[in-house]
Specification:
It contains 5 helices and 12 strands. The chain is α+β, with helices and mostly antiparallel strands. It has 2 domains: 127 residues; 74 residues, no CATH class.
């Protein structure tokens, strides 16, 4: 034991001497990435949609502080720090001072069953300033021009990301199963390694998955099925399954 200690001291002395008397640098631990922070958001809520669609509905576009842009939880791109700043500054100008729920001017036609548009931007305190507008696209002329311009700006980012066709993926997904006992088509056993529905489903079963459960799901149910939603059969019943990748902040 004494010999081992002596050799260790000698080795440290040699390293110090070679480094000009400075202690040898140790390998730094890799920095943990900070939680993704949205700085701009365009999403829809409400409207006449199926229960599955309501659970899985992703924001039209999310812009993160590091420049990551994700559209429809399906496509991604990266914009520069300057573009992030320009986007946030423009949206602040458009949304600051608007009421949380915008109301169209008198005379706007009645539109029903259409999802509301929600526009969001990070304020000076870091919290999202959100403005909700019912049927914004359908009655745009009756809303303040600033809301229309804000939506055009974010729609443009979403379209640009989709045009690049760089797929967004994640190691976390949200899966939804809907009980359809009369579903027609090929029925296959529930994917091995993926938690399955149990008990009464009203109206849908949902679960967030991670780890080895994700590749098992993706293999059995591709994100864009060619022939409709896959049909799976378990001891509990027959289900159609749909899912999407979770966003970094979800």
């Amino acid at each position: 034991m004494r010999l081992r200690t002596t050799l260790l001291v000698a080795l440290l002395s040699l390293v110090t001497a070679c480094g000009g008397g400075e202690p040898a640098a140790t390998a730094a631990e890799p920095e943990r990435s900070a939680p993704a922070t949205p700085v701009a958001v365009l999403r829809a809520e409400g409207g006449f949609v199926t229960a599955s669609m309501n659970v899985l509905r992703a924001p039209r576009v999310v812009v993160y502080g590091d420049g990551l842009v994700i559209a429809d939880a399906a496509y991604k791109m990266t914009i520069s720090a300057a573009e992030v700043t320009q986007t946030v500054d423009a949206l602040k100008k458009y949304l600051t001072g608007q009421p949380p729920t915008a109301t169209p001017k008198p005379g706007a036609p009645m539109v029903t069953d259409i999802p509301a548009t929600v526009l969001g931007v990070a304020g000076d305190d870091g919290k999202l300033i959100e403005v909700r507008a019912e049927a914004l696209d359908q009655v745009a002329d009756f809303y303040p021009k600033e809301l229309v311009d804000a939506k055009k700006l974010l729609d443009g980012l979403a379209a640009k990301a989709a045009e690049k066709k760089e797929a967004y993926t994640s190691d976390r997904v949200r899966v939804v199963a809907e009980s359809v006992p009369t579903a027609e088509g090929e029925r296959t056993p529930w994917p091995a390694g993926v938690p399955e529905p149990s008990g009464k489903i009203d109206p849908v079963w949902q679960k967030d998955l991670a780890g080895t459960e994700v590749p098992a799901l993706v293999k059995a149910a591709p994100p864009v099925p060619d022939a409709g939603l896959p049909i799976f059969e378990t001891k509990s019943g027959v289900f159609v399954l749909s899912w999407r990748y979770l966003l970094p902040n979800e």
